[in-house]
Amino acid sequence: MRIMVLIAGVLDPKWPVAPGPGGLPECSGDRLLLSPFDAAALEMALRVRDAQPDVELSAIVAGGPECDKLARAVSAFHVADVSMLALATPWDQAATARALAVAARGADLILIGREFGDCDDGLVPPMLAAILGLPFFGRVQMVEAAPHLRLMREVGAREEWLPVTEPIVASATNDRRTRLRKPLMKNVVQARQAQIERREAFAVGATGLQLAGSSELAGARSPTNCLMIAGTVQEQARALAIVLMGERL
Description:
By secondary structure, the chain is α/β, with parallel strands linked by helices.
């Protein structure tokens, strides 16, 4: 079985977002990390590989040279086949899905985060499946690799288990039962010297969308009144009751 994991990475939320060329966010290599959905997809693939030694595991990190550190972080999980795929128009979900379809064609199981990169619309995974003509199973929370490969997601109060008997695209969501493991230190060291292939953006059909630019949100946040309540617990309770009843202190 051939498993392909597609990873986009996200900007580290601890750092402010700065506009780059064309108005798009500046993506520096030291501020890119795996999103919770990327991490879940990668962990699921690793669990299948652990249970089935004949699995061929590959990973593609979407982006250019700025993703080198992120790609090596993926390689540190003893993933030998890691490459970076430049995307010509990463803001265009249709073009992104088409480019990923070319790269992932032929895989038996394609795992991708439910949200690809910093776009939170969740469009890329189902579009990818549609382009490839494969079934799509979304919001996977767990994988069972032995004795047979099955994917699980929760829908309301029920669990849905899907046996993987044919090529499929599955989007992964984060779950406490599928937390990404820590890489071995020897693999981290080896990943620093690993050969990371850089793929150029595939030529895909134009979608007709052109990004004119982007800018910061206009205006500042609306001010919010804040009232500090002091005193004993009883005094604070009385003051809070007055506020909740709409009266002035």
